[in-house]
From TrEMBL:
Domain UBX residue range list: 572-649
Biased composition (Polar residues): 84-94
A GO biological process held by the record: ERAD pathway
Record GO cellular component, one term: nucleus
Coiled coil: 514-560
CDD domains: Ubl2_FAF1, UBX_UBXN3A
Molecular function, one GO term: ubiquitin binding
Name recorded for this polypeptide: UBX domain-containing protein
Amino acid sequence: MAENREEILANFQGITAIEDVAEAIYHLDESNWDLLTAINRVMPQDQNAAAADAQDDTHNVEMIDDDISVITPKTHPPDREDNNQASTSSINRNSTNGFVELQINWNNKMYGIKINGTATVSDLKKHLELISGVPSCRQLISGLGGSKAVPSATLGSLGLVKNAVVRLKSADQQMVADDDVAERLTTTYTLHIKHNDRDYTLKYPGTKSVREVKNDIYSLTDIPARHQSWTGWPSVSGLDDTVLAMVGLDLPQHELTVKRAPAKPLKEYKRIALRTEDNTIIVESSDSENSSVEEVEDTGFTGEDDMFVDIANSERLQPLMSENVEDEALGCIEFASRFRARYGPNIPNFFEGTLQDAIKESCLKPAKERKLLGVYLHHEQSVLSNVFCAQLLGSDAVLQTLSANFVIYGWDLTHPNNNNLLLTSVATALGSVASMTIQSIPVDRLPALVIIMRVRSNTEIYSVINGNVGVSELVGGLVEALERFAIQRDEDARLERERDARQRVKLEQDEAYMRSLEADRAKEEIKKQQEIEKNLELERAESERQMEEAKKEALRSEAAARVPAEPGAGSREVARIRVRLPPPHHDCIERRFNADDTLAALLDFLASKGYPQENYKVISSWPRRDLTVESHNSTLKSLKLCPQETVMLEER
């Protein structure tokens, strides 16, 4: 199958002129290695249609080895169209006069050869070696018939078409091409994307498709892929389905810019929505010149009562929040005031303060006093905003539920700066996951009510109720959250009671411990005094030891100063004294003296090495005698320690 795929790849590249092996493999993989399907995939549709219309006159498609299709030109004259099949069969086969005609593709050049049909594949390789200079053992040939093209097979037995395209490559070239494709597919590409005043630096593997990148940008910019307008992508056919490795990106970083595609300008309008008995909403739009009425399907409201909402021109309404709000608390106060002015007194009691303060007021109190936190997210550009505010939030059932069990925090997301301020506040108070959850809510689903509760010592988002619901669905969502909240609040209250009981027991234990501690302090003081006295005694002993060591060191220094210099190599009478050290050392030290040096010089030398005569005896080997009792003024020569002698040290 691998050899068949090589032949398919060679024919595909020869027909489509695609030089990039990775790109050719990509198209063949997408077409399940069907050659005709892959060709139709990459060639322009109008060209394919023209080719299909003229197929009977210009081309013939013949299947080789059940896996490979080769397109070859027809050569029969127009006056013999009735015998197309017979003439095509006789012309397409390489059996003319017993010779085989081939087109060799080597280094992007075509070479036509004509060879006897009785020649073997091995003979063909020798011929190709003369053309390309590539030894037979290093040749990679595709298009000869797959597994049938063994070295001993004759070319006439392979069933080759006339002028069949045979692709020749060197094994070294194949290795380099495969390594290049593998390297590009495993490369990490860095995309620097500009959107308005924000920059994003994203890293993707080479196997990531452009469509997946655009979908990721949707989650960051809230611009659907179909509405994205890009600059910076290379010109590639079928860009969205192409992996990054095949696009031709700049390294180490590729610059891109994305923006929302321009929309058609909207005229000022008034819209009236009316629910009829058959649950159809009639929308009437009007301006200064004309008006129109249309019916749309009701997909967002399921209440039983008819609803009638008169929405005034948005330019006549004061925004619920000013642009570029810098103080979060002042922004909430302004939102509550303008919300009440627009929708009247039947509205929730919005919290006037920061989101962090709202979380403390609702979720961080003791379990018995705890409430749910509802974050109302408003957007002026959503057609659902006015209906949701006037009808759903103004419903008595909703207001009673919110007033008894919720702390309501409101914010307007219309202006980007205000949107970013809220996302920053949410990320600081609840974490990045909560911020991404709010950021991912599309504008057409706003307004939204985000329900936040305390769960297992964590404050997190429980649910999001979008604006395309009815009163019953909104109440149902609130009741469901309340039931879950009640269970968790009872569990937290039980845990708090158990914690308080543990704290009382701990307090009693602490008091008993303090009493026992006071009773033991006297013993500790005595023990501490004894430790101090012991430490003083140790310090005194250490001081005496150090003084003794200093005294010994001084004696060693004095003895070393009295030791005469060691005689040079040219001295005539020299006494070489070898001293065996006492156990556990069992080592020896050796020193050369002048024969006229006294015994005192030898004893001073040993004292300088840490063996004073007060602690050690110096014993000569033969006859055995203690030299320390001899006259110290005696020369080494008179003591018969010359020219060499071995003495031993013994502890006294």
